[in-house]
Every structure is written in structure tokens, then in C-alpha cells.
Amino acid sequence: MQYRVAFGKNDEAVDGADDAALVVTIAAADAGLVPAVAFMQGKLKNTGPTGLLLQVLRDGSAAAAISRLASRP
What is the CATH number for 28? Predict the structure, then answer.
């Protein structure tokens, strides 16, 4: 599992392994949205198995990771 919050071109906060089965990407401007809503609106992107994405959206781990990455100093 890898999470990426994009602040601008070539400026991302990343958490997780480079060879992760699932990579979740969202723009910093959209990081305040509920991740499930952002996914449905097409603002949260993923590569990898959708079933795993739905699991992390449901259990809240995606929201916690995105929030932590988006609040970088």
C-alpha cells in the first residue's frame, strides 16, 4: 500500500513501499474530502486492485494516511 498526496508538479508526499500492490493518489487541495467521496468524484486515483482500495476506504486507514501526508509542514 502506498499513498501519495500531490502538492504540485514533482512535489508529492509519499508513504509506503515503491513496489506496493495498491497506490492511492490525491491532490493536496482535495485531501480534505472524505476519501470515498473523492474516489467517486474521480479526485482520488488508484492503481491496483479495487477490492483492496474499497477495504482501506471502509476501515478508515486511507483517510488517516491522506490526512497525515496532507498536513506536512
Answer: 3.30.1050.10
- Can you tell me the distance from the alpha carbon of 12 to that of 44, in angstroms, rounded to the nearest whole number? 14
* Predicted TM-score of the model (pTM): 0.91
Confidence at residue 72, expressed as pLDDT on a 0 to 100 scale: 79
pLDDT score at 73: 65
Cβ contacts of residue 15 below 8 Å, gap of 6+? 2, 3, 65, 68, 69
**Buried/exposed 1-21: b ≥16 CB within 10 Å, e otherwise:** bbbbbbeeeeeebeeeeeeee
